[in-house]
Design a protein that fits this description.
The complex is a heterodimer. Chain A has helices at about 1-35, 40, 55-65, 70-100, 105-115, 125-135, 140-165, 170-175, 180-190, 195-210, 215-220, 225-230, 240-260, 265-270; strands spanning about 235, 240. By secondary structure, chain A is mainly alpha-helical. Chain A is globular, with a radius of gyration of 23 Å. Chain B is of the alpha+beta class. Chain B folds into two domains: about 5-230, 3-Layer(aba) Sandwich (Rossmann fold), CATH 3.40.50; about 240-340, OB fold (Dihydrolipoamide Acetyltransferase, E2P), CATH 2.40.50. Chain B contains eight helices and 19 strands. Chain B has a six-stranded mixed β-sheet, with helices on both faces. In chain B, strands 13-17-14-15-16 form a five-stranded antiparallel β-sheet, with no helix packed on it. A four-stranded antiparallel β-sheet of chain B has the order 2-1-4-5, covered by helices on one side. Classes of the chains: A mainly alpha, B alpha+beta. At the A-B interface, helix 8 and helix 9 of A face strand 6 and helix 2 of B.
């Protein structure tokens, strides 16, 4: 009886888990399927899930009409560039907060985090004006700067958490062994915090890749990444669901592949220090 | 060279004064142990000598040079930490080579020094392993190896044996003492374990609440402690203290070590009842309850036949007792015939009952 009850609850929980996963995954599945439909089927009143005429026409149209690879390259430069620049600033910041704490370190960390609670639209006008005056509108450099600043609090927080897990005595030993602060960071701290640094980098690449608010506002054509490329299919001429879906699939596939291959690293990094 | 001089050194953490103005001269080549209870400031002082903590006021001279504000790496000192503090991502070889690489020593010389340290510390078979693949004792040896290769003017040890099990601790104690004899380099060693202090030190500095209570050789501290704190801290088991009723003289309490009390079945100064007995094989510790005196610890031979609840007479070796005034300071010894006139009731000579009397 006990085994039966246990099996029954196992089945119920498994079904529940699959249902929730299905609900989460459905929009992506819908986008994927729609990208292979004609525009007529995509807006049909009685859409079919799988039984339709599969076509690659949308993909060829999208590739023909837009410079996908330019947008892709912009996304790569903006997401990786902002993540690397962010690391360059966040590593020393997190080091000082973790190892040279003052009375106000905790307050500073909370303040940094609170900037993430602020709706971005609240600072839209000053940032837009600054970008305009410095000639940064529609430039990859401008986007790298803004993405770095947007994600910096998260990077500092994540690295601070990882650094706190590293025994202070190891860093002191390196100081006794003749390391300067930069040598201490490069030779001892960074290798020890590598899993955390890798997951911070990956998470920020993903966040920057998916960022739409700032990319849509601060870019037009030259520096537009894939998020702007998707939005360009929602034009005043009308909504082209199938082409929009094809563009979306082409935008999310690279980051999905990256996420798939780095999932172990991401999970390991995000749970770093949770269990001793 | 490896002399260290502390002049009126103090340390504050915020408003808390953890090291009160303190002077200490550590001689070249000596093995000095800082001992004291947790939180007494001994590790803080060691870290101040290392340069890992700022000095609030006063001066630290190393080999005659003012090093108060010199960075840790430039002080010519090496430190061995309680947690070993090895670099887990590097092999044993690279751990030992690390300070030499930082000092831009040639690869040939690094290889020679690693070989020499590995030979001294029996690490030859483990050079290519990572610290995670070593036992506690081996890790501590690597940490010492990393310190040795730098040929420092002094070694600083911060409770290096605390994480080891009891038997390994005894072995490592001997190894560190051997190392001191062979290298003849100054060693400053922090511990809360008075046995480590007594067995290893040339001199011991006993710390209490941020001050040094006494500095001296192990036997000086054991035989002539300056106050009740040092008398109680040095010696295992601890000294027995017996409060004396206030009288004309200034004696507030007397101290007698467990090894200076003998047991007798027939006669003695105090009659007591045996409480807990701790058999250690070669010796026995008895906790004897004596009316109006309290519980006294007595060190007897390993073959002591007494059992829990037995009545027994206690006798004290008179010239081995200490007297303390109301401030806890040790008073000069009294003539033998005057000792214990208050607490003693029966002055007959003791009969032996397997005790070790010194």
């Amino acid at each position: 009886m006990a085994i039966n009850n246990s099996n029954k609850s196992k089945i119920i929980y498994t079904a529940l888990a699959w249902s929730i996963s299905g609900m989460i995954f459905f929009p992506i599945l819908w986008t994927l399927l729609t990208s292979f439909k004609t525009e007529a089927e995509a807006i049909s009143a009685s859409p079919s899930l799988f039984m339709f005429d599969w076509t690659l026409e949308n993909y060829s149209d999208v590739l023909a009409r837009s410079s996908y690879f330019n947008h892709f390259w912009n996304s790569v430069v903006i997401s990786i560039g902002s993540s690397l620049l962010g690391l360059l600033i966040a590593v020393p910041a997190a080091w000082s907060m973790a190892f040279v704490q003052t009375k106000r370190t905790k307050h500073l960390l909370m303040w940094m985090l609170s900037t993430k609670m602020l709706p971005p639209v609240g600072v839209l006008i000053p940032i837009y004006l600054i970008f305009r005056d410095f000639g940064l509108l529609d430039t990859k450099l401008g986007l790298v700067i803004v993405m770095t600043l947007v994600n910096l609090p998260i990077m500092v927080w994540m690295l601070y958490t990882y650094f706190r897990e590293i025994p202070h005595e190891i860093l002191e030993a390196s100081r006794m062994d003749g390391c300067t602060i930069s040598e201490e960071i490069f030779h001892v701290l960074l290798p020890l915090a590598l899993p955390g640094i890798a997951s911070t980098l990956l998470l920020n690449v993903i966040l920057a890749w998916n960022e739409a608010f700032w990319t849509l506002i601060l870019t037009a054509a030259d520096a537009a990444p894939l998020t702007a490329f998707i939005a360009s299919y929602s034009s005043p001429e009308g909504l082209f669901y199938a082409k929009l879906s094809a563009a979306s699939v082409m935008a999310i596939v690279p980051i999905l592949i990256l996420g798939w291959f780095s999932q172990k690293q991401l999970v390991r990094g995000l749970s770093f220090g949770a269990v001793k | 060279m490896g002399s260290i001089t502390l002049k009126q050194v103090t340390k504050n953490f915020g408003d808390v004064n953890v090291i009160k103005p303190l002077d200490l001269q550590i001689h070249d080549g000596e093995f000095i142990v800082f001992v004291g209870p947790s939180g007494c400031g001994k590790s803080t002082l060691l870290r101040m000598i290392a340069g890992l903590e700022d000095t609030t006021s006063g001066n630290i001279d190393i080999d005659g040079q003012d090093a108060t504000h010199t960075p840790p790496a430039k002080r010519g000192l090496a430190m061995v930490f309680q947690s070993y503090a090895l670099y887990p991502h590097m092999s044993v070889r690279n751990n030992i080579a690390f300070p030499l690489k930082r000092a831009k020593v040639s690869p040939k010389e690094i290889a020679e020094k690693i070989a020499s340290a590995a030979k001294i510390l029996n690490l030859g078979d483990y050079l290519d392993r990572k610290p995670g693949q070593l036992s506690g004792g081996q890790r501590q040896r690597v940490a010492i190896g990393r310190a040795i290769v730098r040929q420092p003017s002094a070694f600083l040890f911060d409770e290096p044996l605390s994480n080891l099990d009891a038997s390994l601790r005894v072995n490592m104690r001997l190894e560190i003492s051997e190392l001191h004899k062979s290298l003849a380099t100054t060693m400053v060693y922090v511990t809360h374990d008075q046995v480590e202090a007594m067995t290893m030190a040339d001199r011991i500095a006993v710390f209490n609440a941020g001050v040094i209570e006494q500095v001296g050789t192990p036997l000086e501290l054991y035989q002539r402690p300056v106050n009740r704190f040092v008398a109680g801290f040095i010696g295992s088991p601890k000294m027995n203290f017996i409060d004396v009723e206030a009288g004309d003289d200034s004696v507030s309490s007397i101290g007698v070590r467990p090894e200076h009390i003998s047991l007798s079945e027939n006669s003695g100064k105090w009659l007591g009842r045996v409480g807990v007995i701790e058999h250690l094989g070669s010796e026995t510790f008895l906790h004897v309850h004596v009316d109006k005196v309290g519980t006294l610890t007595v060190k007897a031979g390993g073959d002591c036949p007494l059992e829990y609840g037995d009545d027994v007479y206690l006798n004290v070796t008179p010239d081995k007792t200490l007297r303390f005034d109301k401030n806890g300071l040790t008073l000069p010894p009294m003539p033998v015939k005057e000792q214990f006139s208050k607490p003693f009731t029966n002055q007959s000579a003791p009969a032996s009952l397997g005790t070790e009397s010194k």
